[in-house]
Write a structure and sequence with these properties.
There is one protein chain. Helices cover about 35% and strands about 25% of the residues. The protein is of the alpha+beta class and about 300 residues long. β3, α1 and β4 form a beta-alpha-beta unit. About 50% of the residues are buried.
Length: about 300
């Protein structure tokens, strides 16, 4: 097999309490990519549709991620890439991660899977570093492993796939404003009080436990961010109103998706997710800001081959 077409899914990172360590994979929105092995060594991006992104390999997250792969693989391989962007850049649902993760997953598949998905996370992180200045894994990990993932450690990298209860459905609203990851990181304080740290790691533990035990009430009360959200939420119009309304309509919890401006609401069941979508649509329809709404089950597979 010398060429494949893949679906590279959108992701929701942080999940309130898990800044840079927790994320989950969506099923209904994602990029499409065609990756081919070629005779001529090197990485070439031949087509990008749906976004104004650089074709130069060293300026494109997919190109940089594959170059990181080849640096370790140690052989001269030729690859061409076509990217069909369906995830808007700066949306907060893992646009750069989809390209980075999709590229290395596809090349790995074409070469007979020499690396594990966990190892591929390392390569994909280099694309994230290009995009945001920080090699974080909370989007690329769920894209590559599927479902919910936890980055237990960055040095050394230790990524764990968590249990994904089948009833969980994600509702995401993406306001058509851009919040760059680099900008949203600039508002974060690098020191926190011990009291807030204790609250935060208690919630991370609670969320992980809730996923494995399928304790939806525990999941809901663990979706609390006392460190990042209070600082970033001011960048997102109507954030507090949307969060409050989502929970009133039955969402287990709601928060900022990645660095924003998207807002996620995690729900039990499709009916609740649809009700939440209707409510937040009403709220944003009054703002004059264009928006997209995505409703998605959790994608436990991650990246997949499509026809």
């Amino acid at each position: 097999m010398k060429s494949i077409k893949i679906f590279a899914p959108a992701t929701v990172a942080n999940l309130s309490c898990g800044f840079d360590v927790l994320g989950c994979c969506l099923d209904t929105v994602g990029d499409e990519m065609v990756i081919s092995l070629t005779e001529e060594p090197g990485v070439k991006i031949t087509k990008i549709e749906g976004a104004d992104l650089p074709l130069e390999t060293h300026k494109n997250v997919a190109g940089v991620a594959i170059q990181s792969f080849f640096a370790e693989y140690g052989k001269d391989i030729g690859v061409s890439i076509e990217i069909y962007k369906k995830i808007k850049a700066g949306s907060g649902i893992g646009s750069s991660a989809a390209s980075s993760a999709g590229a290395v997953w596809a090349v790995n598949h074409l070469l007979g899977n020499p690396y594990t998905p966990q190892k591929l996370v390392e390569f994909a992180m280099q694309g994230e570093k290009l995009a945001s200045g920080n090699a974080h894994a909370d989007n690329v990990a769920p894209a590559l492993l599927g479902g919910f993932t936890l980055v237990r450690s960055y040095t050394p990298l230790d990524v764990i796939k968590l249990h994904s209860p089948k009833d969980l459905v994600m509702t995401v609203i993406h306001p058509q404003i851009e919040v760059k990851t680099s900008d949203s990181r600039s508002v974060i304080k690098h020191n926190v009080t011990l009291k807030k740290a204790i609250q935060q790691w208690g919630n991370v533990g609670g969320l992980v436990a809730g996923l494995f035990t399928e304790d939806y009430e525990l999941i809901g009360r663990s979706l609390e961010d006392v460190i990042i959200e209070p600082l970033r939420s001011i960048l997102i119009p109507e954030f507090d109103t949307v969060k409050r309304a989502a929970i009133q309509k039955g969402a287990l919890g709601a928060g900022i998706s990645g660095s924003g401006p998207s807002i996620f609401a995690l729900c039990k069941g499709m009916e609740v997710a649809n009700n939440v979508a209707g409510t937040i649509k009403e709220i944003y329809s009054k703002t004059g800001i264009d928006f997209d709404i995505h409703i998605s089950k959790i994608n436990d597979q991650g990246i997949k081959i499509i026809n």
